[in-house]
Amino acid sequence: MFQRTTGLLLFAVIVSAGLAAAEGKPDIGFVPTPMAAVGRMIEMAEIKPGDVVFDLGCGDGRIVVAAAKLYGVKAVGVDISAERVAESRERARAAGVESLVEIRQADIFDLDLERADVVFLYLTPRLNERLMPQLRRLKPGARIISYEFDMGAAKPVEVVRERFDQFGEQKIYKWIVPWTENAGSAWDIFTLRP
């Protein structure tokens, strides 16, 4: 029952967010990435000195702040919500990394990502797939890390399944540009996992 209720709640958030997007508001509601997952995502990104990190739909800025704090790299968080942008900037200031962290209020689909070495995502599969043309233009070797959701036919180089909160097992996907694509999907309505 709990799992079904959670699924219905997530569906309601996605549907209402989609309606809001048509009015110039965020495509999805803000759901923070669990801090345990943030640490694992950053680890999977294999951040190196000099890397530039982007978080698309950065929410409260927890990923860009953690990356800047741990590795001393430049990090750019992007969110369309003025409230999230203000919250992210305050988090960067409180952590003492505001000189490394830039928070932009912008539509992620209008971004130039040519500087990015690492891109973090926690969006829906539909939004991830919509970003694929931009992500394909990343420099070779750039890493894309997505919490919970894949990018359709794009074949990840790594998928981690762990429990990061009380809601059960979650996934983190990693791609390295250029990625390969699956010829066809093994997903159907009768298969629980691809």
Question: What's the gist of this structure?
Answer:
By secondary structure, the protein is α/β, with parallel strands linked by helices. It is built from five helices and nine strands, in the order ααβαβαββαβββββ. Helix 2 packs across helix 3 and helix 3 runs parallel beside helix 4.
CATH top level label: Alpha Beta
Number of domains: 1
Reading the helices and strands in chain order gives: HHEHEHEEHEEEEE
CATH fold annotation: Rossmann fold
Number of helices: 5
Q: CATH homologous superfamily?
A: Vaccinia Virus protein VP39
Distance between the termini: 23 Å
The backbone outline, from C-alpha atoms, is globular
Helix content, binned percent: 25-40%
Structural class: alpha/beta
- Which assembly state applies to the chains in this document? single chain
Task: Say how many strands there are.
Answer: 9
Strand arrangement in the largest pleated sheet: 3-2-1-4-5-8-7
Radius of gyration: 16 Å
Assigned CATH architecture: 3-Layer(aba) Sandwich
Keywords, separated by commas or semicolons:
194 residues, two-stranded antiparallel sheet, single chain, globular, 7-stranded mixed sheet, alpha/beta, 5 helices, Rossmann fold
